[in-house]
Specification:
The chain is mainly beta. A hairpin with a 5-residue loop joins strand 1 and strand 2. Bound molecules: zinc ion. The site of zinc ion has 8 residues, from loops.
Amino acid sequence: MNSWKCKKCGYQLEAETPPETCPSCKEKCEFLDNTCYTPDCGQTGKDPRIG
Ligand SMILES: [Zn+2]
C-alpha cells in the first residue's frame, strides 16, 4: 500500500494507486507519493519530508 498526498489541498490517503479525483477537492488533482521507502523517515509509513 502506498501513501498519497493531494498536491492541492494536502489530503492524504492510502491506496495502491492515487484516485483520479481527490475526495476532498472533488477535482482532478495531482497526488504526491509520500510513502516511506527507507528507514530514515521514522518507520511511520509516511515520509515526513513530503507529507
Ligand atoms: Zn485535494
